[in-house]
Write a structure and sequence with these properties.
27% of the residues lie in helices and 29% in strands. The chain is of the alpha+beta class. The chain folds into two domains: 5-164, Nucleoside Triphosphate Pyrophosphohydrolase, CATH 3.90.79.10; 172-235, Orthogonal Bundle (Arc Repressor Mutant, subunit A), CATH 1.10.10. The radius of gyration is 20 Å and the shape is elongated.
Length: 245
């Protein structure tokens, strides 16, 4: 069955992962080749995005596109921005690319951005026809369209949401140490936190459950592991993170 594409509306997904050292984002390689020699004329990257189908709502389209390009399903997604500047697709490379893939380069396209969070070590990326890779947010390759602006907006939105919600735990494995949790906050906010104060504040949060288990296969003294309890979080009326940073 074929579906009709809406040529004026797209969605783009900023998918974040954390490897205990860096915040990373998932990007799709874009290669424009010569029709004659098949040699690359230019190579850059995009966020995970495409046009919506006429019958889809926006989140439905975002989840379909994520699955098509990466194999990712059932992750946290949150809408955070819409970009609609008339000149957002007017760079020379983007005009060439749009014409190459059969899109009208003169169409005005409004894109709606979603950011997604996942445990980078627990989700297998199954790329389709285009290469998909993780890149550190602070060391990006050239990005197409206005995707650099969208990514910057997503990072700021993530910082804001981490102050007032528990979405940070979506970036961590089910079991983690307090040091790993502290590193996550330090990396995203670009600051150093006092270890004693951080631990004191986090231990007061009833939904952070200490486990009778320690780290294994580490070169340092194994730390106690914790887990986040969604059930306890809901019961205790959602303690806020406002005083952590």
């Amino acid at each position: 069955m074929s579906f009709r594409i809406n040529p004026n509306i797209s969605v783009d997904c900023v998918v974040f992962g954390f490897d205990f050292r860096q915040l990373k984002v998932l990007l799709v390689e874009r290669i424009f080749q010569s029709d004659y020699s098949l040699k690359p004329i230019f190579t850059d990257h995009t966020l995970i995005g495409n046009h919506i189908y006429e019958h889809e709502d926006l989140e439905e389209a975002a989840r379909r596109i994520l699955k098509d390009l990466t194999g990712i399903e059932n992750i946290y997604l949150e809408q955070f921005i819409a970009l609609a500047h008339p000149e957002r697709l007017k760079k020379e490379r983007d005009q060439i690319w749009l014409q190459h893939i059969g899109h009208n380069p003169h169409n005005r396209v409004i894109t709606v951005g979603y950011f997604g969070l996942l445990d980078i070590n627990a989700m297998e990326i199954r790329a389709g026809s285009r290469k998909v890779s993780w890149f550190p947010v602070n060391k990006l390759p050239a990005l197409a369209f206005d995707h650099h602006d969208m990514l910057n907006h997503a990072v700021e939105c993530l910082k804001t949401r981490m102050r007032v919600s528990t979405i940070a735990y979506t970036l961590l494995p089910k079991k983690f140490s307090l040091s790993q949790l502290q590193t996550l906050f330090e990396v995203i906010y670009g600051t150093n936190l006092d270890k004693r104060n951080f631990r004191k504040k986090m231990i007061r949060m009833k939904y952070l459950i200490p486990l009778n288990e320690k780290q294994s296969n580490v070169s340092h003294k194994p730390a106690q592991l914790y887990m986040f309890s969604r059930e306890v979080y809901e019961i205790t009326n959602r303690d806020l993170f406002e005083n952590i940073i």
